[in-house]
């Protein structure tokens, strides 16, 4: 196979502007090796470009190619850092769940307490349960609950207070019974 004849115009551009492009990229990257790789990419693209003869200002053309590669480089870096940050957050969450204060026994106890709370809430009258749920879990004010339920604010206060008292007493009595066993 015969080697293609070297393109004199392309060679002159490579020799004439290589140091300028490399310097330009080195000033804008964190790594000399990244700058060298991007410079090589610029000239690889230049040598593969079919319409070199139609380029009036090869230096400007090469610098634009370098800027484009640099923009792509920074986009990749940004994505890489976002992924690394997400991975670090996930590892931190994993460490927090493995911390001494959050052992599996404590997690099981929290789940058991939530199950107890569900049972106790189901024992409340529908109006008291609704008032408590709207206040504690949906974050509505007593005035908003009053409007939604069509009752007075003082009745809302009584429903919430009675529901909280009942839940506390039931959960405390269940805990005492468990500890006695």
TrEMBL record:
Keywords assigned: Sigma factor, Transcription, Transcription regulation
Stretches the record annotates as Disordered: 85-107
Any Pfam family hit: Sigma70_r4_2
Record domain RNA polymerase sigma-70 region: where: 19-78
Entry-linked InterPro entries: RNA_pol_sigma-70-like, RNA_pol_sigma-70_dom, RNA_pol_sigma70_r2, RNA_pol_sigma70_r4_t2, RNA_pol_sigma_r2, RNA_pol_sigma_r3/r4-like, WH-like_DNA-bd_sf
CDD domains per record: Sigma70_r4
Stretches with biased composition (Basic and acidic residues): 85-97
Any Gene Ontology biological process: DNA-templated transcription initiation
RNA polymerase sigma factor 70 region 4 type domain segment(s): 120-165
GO MF assignments: DNA binding; sigma factor activity
Keyword Transcription regulation attached: yes
Coiled-coil residue spans: none
Family in the record: Belongs to the sigma-70 factor family. ECF subfamily.
PANTHER family, per database record: RNA POLYMERASE ECF-TYPE SIGMA FACTO, RNA POLYMERASE SIGMA FACTOR FECI-RELATED
Protein name in UniProt: RNA polymerase sigma-70 factor, ECF subfamily
């Amino acid at each position: 196979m015969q080697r293609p004849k070297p393109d004199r115009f392309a060679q002159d551009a490579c020799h004439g502007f290589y140091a300028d492009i490399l310097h330009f990229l080195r000033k804008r990257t964190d790594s000399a090796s990244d700058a060298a790789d991007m410079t090589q990419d610029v000239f690889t693209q230049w040598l593969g470009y079919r319409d070199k003869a139609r380029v009036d200002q090869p230096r400007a053309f090469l610098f634009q190619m370098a800027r484009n590669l640099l923009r792509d480089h920074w986009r990749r870096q940004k994505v890489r850092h976002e992924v690394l940050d997400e991975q670090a957050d996930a590892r931190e969450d994993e460490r927090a769940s493995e911390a001494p204060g959050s052992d599996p026994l404590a997690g099981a106890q929290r789940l058991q307490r939530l199950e107890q709370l569900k049972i106790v809430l189901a024992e409340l009258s529908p109006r008291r349960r609704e008032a408590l749920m709207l206040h504690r879990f949906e974050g509505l004010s007593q005035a908003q609950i009053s409007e939604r339920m069509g009752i007075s604010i003082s009745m809302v206060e009584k429903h919430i207070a009675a529901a909280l008292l009942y839940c506390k007493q039931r959960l405390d009595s269940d805990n005492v019974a468990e500890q006695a066993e």
